Amino acid sequence: MKRGSTWSYVIRVKDPETGTSKPKWVGGFATENDAKEARDDARVKARRGEYVDRNAVTVAEYMEEWINGHAIEIKPKTLRDYRLMIRLYIVPRIGGLRLQAIRPATLTKLYRDLHTSGGAKGKALSARTVRYVHTVMRKALRDAVEVEELLPSNPAERAKLPRTDTPEAGTIWTTAQLRAFLTHARPHRLYAFFHLAAYSGARRGELLNLRWRDVDFEGRQIRITGTTNVIDRRRVEGTTKNGRSRTVSLDGETVKVLQDHRERQEAEQLKAGEEWKNGQHYVFVTGFGEPVYPDTVSSLVRTFIAAYNAPKGGPKPAVPLPPARLHDLRHLHATTLLLAGVAVHVVAARLGHTDPAITLRVYAHVISEQMATAAEVFAEAINSPAA
């Protein structure tokens, strides 16, 4: 039926609570064919019990309501990141569309456009950020289906992400380069932090949250129980990324490094006297016992590398250290273990991955190297005289 300048249709939909059938009028279609096509689709969904009332809420309106409703249950850093993805990448591009008009192709185009020109000044956006946008959309639209009943299915589940050959990890040093870096960092009062980061594979925030009670010298292990982040210039502590605590074993050298670090910290405490502020007994603090700001240790990596490559009053190294991030020490730890033949599930447990499949995805390039030599390893084992 034409009403004014638009077309409408009516179907009968059964109320799931009363079992009675009621007419549902839906309008706003530009042509008669559009209305008929939508009516036929609605009839099929009504028979399946999948009919969803037409709703005019936009993507921007829904995303704002969704993120505000989940603010209590999402970790502060995750909440900040979600809001950033929504504000920078989702709302500006598809915020004005009706939520119920979103199709898999809509999101596929969104991801493709972001990947090619979604960054600052129209530059390409990293594949990692595009995947994060997809994660936010998938979670939000899942609630639109299962909780709000605004959508019959989640279009994000069938959307396609841009293909990329870019590996997850950044620069991976060799073991020799790691030794050179740690040797250069040894005189610094926070040397133990960088040694432990490389030898445990723990995240920056996890180590900055570490207390002395979490260090078991006799058992040669540390207990990762939480993490530290900075949100709006304020230090915030919370659970680990997967919400679980874990125990990470240590080698003898690392235990000795931590013991030396504790002695140094005790000497600093005596020197600071009443100005010492480490009431929480953190393992890594400033010279006055205050918690270390996360960006401090990240920037120190760049400082150490620059000083190593261009030493004052001395010759430059024959082989300079390539640029790397603090997080790359974690990647180096995992890569070294995998190449040494340590089982994936063991590496996943050390890293705090909830599922070894995550480790397999992130370090697929390392697994591929192992697969390339697997045939030779098997043949050598079979043909060995000892076998």
Describe the fold and architecture.
Helix 4 runs antiparallel to helix 5, helix 11 packs antiparallel against helix 12 and helix 12 crosses helix 13. Strands 1-2-3 form a three-stranded antiparallel sheet, with helices on one face. It has three domains: about 45 residues; about 100 residues, Tyrosine recombinase, N-terminal domain (DNA polymerase, domain 1), CATH 1.10.150; about 150 residues, hpI Integrase, Chain A. It contains 14 helices and eight strands. With about 375 residues, the protein is mainly α.
Supply the CATH architecture of the largest domain. Orthogonal Bundle
Shape from CA axes? Answer: elongated
Class by alpha and beta content: mainly alpha
What's the count of strands? Answer: 8
| Average pLDDT number | 87
CATH topology of the largest domain: hpI Integrase, Chain A
CATH uppermost class of the largest domain: Mainly Alpha
Beta-strand share of residues: 5-15%
* Element string (H = helix, E = strand): EEEHHHHHHHHEEEEEHHHHHH
Widest sheet, order of strands: 1-2-3
Indicate how many domains the architecture comprises. Answer: 3
Uncertain runs:
none
Helix content class = 40-55%
Radius of gyration: 28 Å
What characterizes the major β-sheet? 3 strands, antiparallel
Alpha plus pi helix count: 14
CATH homologous superfamily assignment of the largest domain:
Intergrase catalytic core
User: End-to-end distance, in Å?
Assistant: 83 Å
